[in-house]
Amino acid sequence: xxxxxxxxxxxxxxxxxxxxxxxxxxxxxxxxxxxxxxxxxxxxxxxxxxxxxxxxxxxxxxxxxxxxxxxxxxxxxxxxxxxxxxxxxxxxxxxxxxxxxxxxxxxxxxxxxxxxxxxxxxxxxxxxxxxxxxxxxxxxxxxxxxxxxxxxxxxxxxxxxxxxxxxxxxxxxxxxxxxxxxxxxxxxxxxxxxxxxxxxxxxxxxxxxxxxxxxxxxxxxxxxxxxxxxxxxxxxxxxxxxxxxxxxxxxxxxxxxxxxxx
Amino acid sequence: xxxxxxxxxxxxxxxxxxxxxxxxxxxxxxxxxxxxxxxxxxxxxxxxxxxxxxxxxxxxxxxxxxxxxxxxxxxxxxxxxxxxxxxxxxxxxxxxxxxxxxxxxxxxxxxxxxxxxxxxxxxxxxxxxxxxxxxxxxxxxxxxxxxxxxxxxxxxxxxxxxxxxxxxxxxxxxxxxxxxxxxxxxxxxxxxxxxxxxxxxxxxxxxxxxxxxxxxxxxxxxxxxxxxxxxxxxxxxxxxxxxxxxxxxxxxxxxxxxxxxx
Amino acid sequence: xxxxxxxxxxxxxxxxxxxxxxxxxxxxxxxxxxxxxxxxxxxxxxxxxxxxxxxxxxxxxxxxxxxxxxxxxxxxxxxxxxxxxxxxxxxxxxxxxxxxxxxxxxxxxxxxxxxxxxxxxxxxxxxxxxxxxxxxxxxxxxxxxxxxxxxxxxxxxxxxxxxxxxxxxxxxxxxxxxxxxxxxxxxxxxxxxxxxxxxxxxxxxxxxxxxxxxxxxxxxxxxxxxxxxxxxxxxxxxxxxxxxxxxxxxxxxxxxxxxxxx
Amino acid sequence: xxxxxxxxxxxxxxxxxxxxxxxxxxxxxxxxxxxxxxxxxxxxxxxxxxxxxxxxxxxxxxxxxxxxxxxxxxxxxxxxxxxxxxxxxxxxxxxxxxxxxxxxxxxxxxxxxxxxxxxxxxxxxxxxxxxxxxxxxxxxxxxxxxxxxxxxxxxxxxxxxxxxxxxxxxxxxxxxxxxxxxxxxxxxxxxxxxxxxxxxxxxxxxxxxxxxxxxxxxxxxxxxxxxxxxxxxxxxxxxxxxxxxxxxxxxxxxxxxxxxxx
Lengths: 262, 262, 262, 262
Description:
4 copies of one chain form a homotetramer. With about 260 residues, chain A is α+β, with helices and mostly antiparallel strands.
C-alpha cells in the first residue's frame, strides 16, 4: 500500500505538500494513517512539470524521510503540476526503476494497489505492451506494466477508456489463470495538462482515494493531508476523476463490459 | 531508538537471528515492539568474526528489510560472534559511516540511545578522542564518538571501567553546557572473544537491554527475539553484562564517582 | 566491455584476486588494459560458493573501487569457487538487478559482451525464457536474458550444447530482424562444482578470454591478472573451456549448425 | 583531482554545461583531459540558485555518468548561478556528505586539490572551525573543513582575504607538523550573487583553473569545455578571480604574509 499525492494549480514549491504539513507525504512515508502497512519506506519519487512539456523525474531507493536531496529539491522546484509517491513494495525489489511515478514522453503515472498473483501474471501483462513501447519497460513492477499497457490501449487519446479496458483485460486474464487475489488500482495519470485519477478494484475493497478542489488548485491523494485546510471527498469506487485543464473536475464511472468477479 | 542483537556461541549462520525468526532483527526494522519509534529504517549493519581476528563489516543505508545483499550474506556467513544493528536516526544523516557497528582494530561497538543535545555536545565529545585515534572517526554520530572516546579511555584493557568513565565524563560535560536532555546508553562491545554489554542512563529511563544464555550461546538484544525458545532477562539499569570467553557471564554495576543529575 | 574473473581451487579469500594484486579486478575497474572502455564503474558483483550448495551474491551499483563493504567481504569470505565482475554498461541502467553475476538455484553466470541492437532484440530474447523461469528475470540486461534462455535450453544438463544453441538462436533472430551489430559473448557458468567458460562472437572479434591452471586452482579472466605468477593462455575463438570438478580442463569447439553472418 | 564548473549569467538549464557538450562535466567524469586521474567517479554534486536566496543541492555517490536523476534535474532546473563538481577522492570515503559543493546558509563552495597529509592534519584544520559553525561539519573531507574555516575567517565579508588567510594558516600548520605534501587549491565560492574563484598551491604546481567571459555569462572551470565556442584563459597561479554581480571580473593576487615552502 503506497501513498501518493497529485497537485495541479498555481506554480508552487513541492515542499508545500511533500515536506511541510503535518500529514505531508514525507510524514506518511513513516506514518500512513489509512494504509494496511504504516511504513512506506521502499523508495519514493516525484515527477513534475515546470517549463518544459516533458516532466522531470527524481526517484530514489532510500526512504523519503531520510533523503536530504529530496528536501532540497522540494524546496527549490516550483511546478504547476506534480506527482509524488512513497512506496511500500508488494514484492518487486527496491530499485529506482521500480519507483513511481513512471514517465513516458509527456505522460506521468503513479499507482497504489497491485495485480494479484503478479509473479504468475507478469508475463501475460507484459505481453499487452507492444514492441514499440517495450523499450520503455525499465523495471519489474505491475504498476509500470499497467501504465505501458494503458498507453498501448490508447491512453494518450482517451485515458478513462484505455485504463478501464486495460484493467478489464488484466482482470479477465487473472481469472483465466485462476488467480484469486484481487486487482486493486488507485492511480493518477497526466500529460502535464489534464489530470486523471482512478479508483477501482476487482473486489469490493478498492484503495482509498481522496480529492479536494479550491479555486486555484486540485489535490488528489491516497489520504487527506492534515494541516491543509481543504475539505476532502472520497472518489467513489469504480470511478475516475477527470480534470481537464481549465475545466471543472468531474466524476465518471469506469464501466466494465463484464461483471466483476467476487 | 535503534534495535540490535549480539551473538556469541557455536558458529552459526547470521540468518538464524537476523533474518529468520518472527521477531528477527529484520522484522524489528519494520516493527519494533519496545521502542518509541517502531520503524528502524535509517540504515543497518552487521559485524562478525569468522576466521580472522579482525571483524568483517557490512553497513548499508537502505532499510534492512529491503536489502537483498543482507539476506544473501546472512545466509552464507557463519560466525562465532556477531553484532547486528538496525538504525533509527536521532539526527545525523543516513550514511554508511553513521551505521553501526563501528570497528576499530579487533574491536566492534554498537549502541542504542543518544547523547542529548548532540549538535551542542559534538565538539566537546570529539575532543575526548586523541589525535592517534582521530583518523578512525569516519562519521558524525554520537555513538562512534563515544566508542573512540572509550577506546582512548582504555577500553581495550578494562572495558567496563573505560566505558563508565567515558559516560561519566560526557554526562559531566553535558551538565556543564546546560544540556538537560539525557545521555542514554545500551551498547555492546567486543574484541571478538570477550563480550560486554552496557545499560545506563543519566536519567531513570535507560533503554531496554535483554540477555539470554544457554549452554552453547549468549544472546544480548534490545528486545527479546520471539520464536526463539530462550528465556530472556533484563539487564538492570546502570549495569554491565561481562561475558569473558570461556567463563560464565556476570552482571557488574557501573559505578559512577558523581551523583547522577535528575 | 566488462571485466571478470572466475576462480576454482583450494578455499581462498576473495581478496587474493579481487582486491590484492596489481591487476586485481578492483584495479581493472579503474584501469582495464585490454578493454575498449578503460573504466568499469557501472556496478559490480561477486558470487561465491562456501558451505552451501547455493551461491552467495553481493552486487552493488557503486564502482568497485569505492565500496568499502566489498573490501570487507573480500577479506572475510573464503570460497572454493567464486565469480567476480566489474561492469561497464552497454545501455541498461546501473541497478543491482543489472549487475553480474546472476544466480538461478545452484547456478551462477556472468558475461562480457553484448547482444547487438538490444533495445530491438530484448522482447524476442525474453521470449526464449519460458514462464516457469520468467519470475527469475529481475533486471533488463541482455546478459541475464541469455542466462535464463540457456537454462531453458538445458544448461543444467549440457551447458556447452545449451549455450551454443542459445547463441545460435539469438544470432539467427538478430539476422531476421536485420540487426547488423554483433553478438559477442565471453562468459562463465557454474553449478558450484563444474566450471564452464565461453568465448564466442557472431563477428571475428570475440572478447578476450584467458585461463590459467596450476595444480590446485583454475583461473579464467577477461585479461591476465598481473602480479600473479601464473601463465595465461587465450581461449580460442568459438571455444568453450570445460572444467569438470576433479578432472583436467579441456577446450571444446562451440559448433554451430549454421554459418556465421559476416 | 576533481573537475568542476561554475556558471553565472542569464538563467540557463544546467544541462547546457553539465550534460550536453562534448566536454561537459559528465563527459569529464569519465574522461578528464588535464587531470592526473582521468576518472572522476567518486560521486558528484550540483548546487544552484533559482528563485530563493539559499542554493539547492543535489549530491550523489554514483558516478555522474550513470545517474539518471542528474540528467533529469539538469534538463529541468534553470539557474542564474550554479556549481557542478565530479569527484575523484584523495582518500575520504564516497558519501553524499563528502561530495561537493558544500552549502552554508546562502554560500556555496567547491574545490579541486587537497591538503597534503590530511589524516595527520584533519584534527588541526577542524580546530580552525569555531563551535558555532561546527554543527555544519557533515563529512570528513579537507575541502569542507577549508570552507568552514574560511567562513570562520570572515569569507562572508571579504572572501579573498579570508580564503588567503585560511590557506596561509593551514600551510603554516602543515609545515609545523612536518607535512611535505603540498596544499593545492582550485576552488569557487559564491553567495548567489558575487562569484570568487581561487588558484593557489603551496608548491609550484597549482591545479589548472580556466575562465571565460562573454557579454551575458561567466564560466570558470577546471578545464575548458569543448564544444562551447568561448575562449578560455588560465587564472594565473596564486590569484583569485573576483566577479562581483554587475561588475567586470578582475584578477587579484592572493598575497601571503609568509614565503612559501618549496
